[in-house]
TrEMBL record:
Name of the protein in its database record: MerR family transcriptional regulator
Domain of life: Bacteria
Gene3D superfamilies: 1.10.1660.10
GO molecular function, one term: DNA binding
This protein's record includes keyword DNA-binding: yes
Length: 260
């Protein structure tokens, strides 16, 4: 007897090999983003890696499994238990990896965006931050106190004050890191309100404590020698750094709300 589900679009069924498939690639309910892309699970994990590595050379099987554990993609399973991905799964993974790489978004935020897309909401595209950060990183070895001061239109003495107060920490040969310019920008605006380098020491100390917490969390991963573990450590560190920044901002806004 033919099952009623077999003739209904969007209803899961078996493809004869023990793999659950969608009866229609045009299924229009929640969980259907991206639309218009096949949902037939025809790709092995090696096929997925091949499809993604052109844009994401360091992606690994463990990375895909990690994203699955976080609920960002749900590959089908064969009767033998092997993962089988659809073209729609691959595009979903590509979207997640791009947001991580270009936006440094936490996985929770990415999951919320995917949920909105699944329900048909339109997400406003974000301006990529990766290009800016990479450009800053490339300039970092050449960023000196004088060059940062000139580029940010502040007196060189002002940058020296930030260094002497421990807010900026030059590396070997006096080079400042990729974020020194942003620190100088914010510090110069705060200085206009009478908040000088001495007051900023508490911010530096708070940041150091938060960095210590992040280091403790990723230490077990960094201690492993595998490339996958190192990649995951970098992703977790970046995500925790963003979350710490967001928490700090929220706490400051909460504490100053009654002053407005």
């Amino acid at each position: 007897m033919t099952s009623a589900a077999g003739s209904q679009p969007g209803v899961a069924r078996s493809d004869g090999y023990g793999i659950a498939t969608e009866a229609s690639a045009e299924h229009s309910g929640p969980g259907c983003w991206p639309r218009g892309v096949s949902r037939t699970p025809s790709m092995r994990i090696s096929d997925v890696l091949t499809a993604l590595r052109g844009d994401f050379p360091t992606v690994t099987p463990s990375k895909l499994r990690f994203l699955e554990e976080q609920g960002l993609v749900e590959p089908a399973r064969s009767g033998a238990g092997y993962r089988q991905y659809s073209p729609a799964d691959v595009e979903r993974l590509r979207h997640v990896l791009r947001l991580q790489r270009d936006q440094y978004l936490p996985l929770k935020v990415i999951a919320e965006q995917l949920d909105a897309l699944d329900h048909g909401d339109e997400i406003e595209p974000l301006v990529p931050r990766r290009a800016l950060h990479e450009a800053q990183a490339h300039e970092a070895p050449r960023a000196t106190i004088s060059s940062v001061a000139a580029h940010r239109n502040v007196p060189e003495a002002f940058v020296h004050e930030l260094v002497e107060a421990g807010i900026l920490r030059p590396g070997p040969q006096g080079a400042l890191d990729a974020w020194a310019g942003e620190v100088v920008d914010v510090a110069s605006v705060l200085a206009e309100h009478g908040i000088d380098a001495r007051h900023l020491r508490s911010f530096r100390a708070a940041a150091d404590r938060q960095i210590d917490v992040v280091e403790q969390v990723v230490a077990p991963l960094r201690g492993q020698r595998s490339g996958a573990a190192q990649e995951r450590a970098a992703c977790v560190a970046a995500e925790l750094g963003e979350l710490c920044g967001r928490l700090h901002t929220a706490l400051i806004r909460s504490g100053t709300a009654h002053l407005t």
